[in-house]
Design brief:
Elements: H1 21-40, E1 45-47, H2 59-74, E2 79-82, E3 107-110, E4 116-120, E5 123-128, H3 136-141, E6 150-155, E7 157-158, E8 173-174, E9 185-189, E10 195-198, E11 201-203, E12 221-224, E13 231-234, E14 241-243, E15 247-248, H4 254-264, E16 272-280, H5 282-286, H6 290-299, E17 302-309, H7 326-337, H8 342-368
Parallel strand pairs: 1-2, 2-3, 5-6, 6-9, 7-8, 9-11, 14-16, 15-16, 16-17
Antiparallel strand pairs: 4-5, 10-11, 12-13
Helix pairs in contact: 1-2, 7-8
Length: about 375
Amino acid sequence: MADSHLGFSNYNRVDRLGRNVVEEMIYKGFEEAIERIVDLSPDALVHAGDVFHHVRPRIRPLYVFKKALERLVDAGIPVIIISGNHDSPKSYSHLSPFYMYEGLDGVFIAHRYRLENFEAGDHTFHCLPFCLDPHDYMAEFEKIRLSGSDVLVMHGIVEALRNERMMTVGEHEINDSLLKSDFDYIALGHYHGQAQISGNAWYSGSIEYFNFGEARQVKGLLQVDLESGRVEQIPIRPLYMIDHPPLDCSGMRPEEIIEGMEDLCQEMEGRMVRLNLINVGRGAYRRIDQSRINRLASRAIHLMVRVEYEDEAPLSRRERVDVLGIPEEFGRFICEEGGISPAIEKEVVEYGTGLFKNIVAANQTEALDAPQ
């Protein structure tokens, strides 16, 4: 498994106790995955990075993960973990959250920016976590000494999936030359969909949906037989993110537009939904009864309405901007093009992304979240 992102809470809806609904769903889904793993009783569990969504997790995600580790250890299942770009400090001066779990019997964690090797069953797991310098991956990889029964664990985006880059801070590209057939299996993390990259290399993907670009991805766990090379996809969560095909609103009156939206939103309970409206008349959209949109939003975990007006040039998929990605885009811009002094770059990125997240959250709440 990979990319649990415990602590993720980018959407606004809260429950009656004031807890973020999506964050709670992710904890629940993670616990369900752990119970499924215990039922499957594998020889080992590999987590290929991004256990946490933040490099400094709050108490709740730290506790949820601790309970999961204890459950697996009690079941006699060794756990092998690497840190990813989300849960790795971007400076040697900060401690990794994984220091808290060191010393747990049966738990092996690679998080010190270097290759670490662990034995589990008859196999050696060569674990290459997030590195501060992208050039370090090749140098660390060259330290691997194969035992004859070997698994490689890495976190990053492979060259073959370059177009799927998430543009997040610390996102590193994995050179395809590292995906060697000498390994019995290569477990990859970072890309959130399940994908076979080569005969022996897979992304297990995440078990949750974090943005609408993932709505059509296959989610779950992978059960791997290292002797035969057989990989079985294990679903964990139901499909709860819906990205509807575009609704052409050419010539529609306000009443017709909202009725079209309501027709698409027949099943919204417990789901995250995006409506894509194209060729929309500006005047017609302004006259839509906002209370009817708010009623739709109140039935969903999250509702996003993306509007393309008829007087706008059509945008390609990669030109479209999803406001939920603006904080990450800011971080990428500062790191790659901003010309900020290295001494203050980290503080600028943290402050700016936090500010953008607050703006996006406030905008989404004002427009769509009727209960708040």
